Model the fold of this input.
Amino acid sequence: MKRAYQVEMAVIRNYTRQLFGLGIFVAACTCVGMQSLAGAPGVLTCMYFIMGALATSAYDEQNNWGLYRLAMPFNRHEVVLARYGAIATIGLIGMAAGMIGALALSAIATVAPLPGDLSATLGLTQDNIQAMVFSCALCAIVGSGVAAIETPIYLRFGQTKATQWIPMISVLLFISPAIILGATGGLGNFAGIADTIRGIFAFIETPVGAAVSLVVALAVSAIILGISAAISLALYDRREL
Done:
């Protein structure tokens, strides 16, 4: 597993370096555009999880790398687990780049006046820090969830064929349940948990709550990717390359 992961990361090493530098710049621009520090780290976290699934699959089809890799001294299970390790790594790179970009811009805002009210809105306050942490937590779950859906399809069919299946599967998993619940009145059943949700959000608005939300989100993301990896293992074993 370790060797397969090292090979996977070596293949996308230059790509991840570019992503990290670009992510810091994009995070700073996003903060200026939104006039808030809250969204940028979360946006990059979600985006990089998804890009990790897409980019690693794209490299498989370049110069028949996916086929050549199986001639190396590790099996298909190690290949799949290394792939998920690479996706998680890229997702965390996005989180780090988003945080660094936002914090760097905030540091600039404290020592130099920025146009408009940016110096005030981009200050490194407790509320801004908690908002950044929570956005990372929420978007990590969303991004890992999308990557968990896409990766088994990529590993089973390859990137070219997977592009035909992903839109349909996304509709079935995300849109169809909402339509069914709305048509049957099932959404009304969620009204009773509104007080619980408000209580959770009240806890998240505290410093401890924000930190706990991030830890829980990363654990949930790991579970989601773990379930997806189990599915991918079964699918990739049956794929003929």
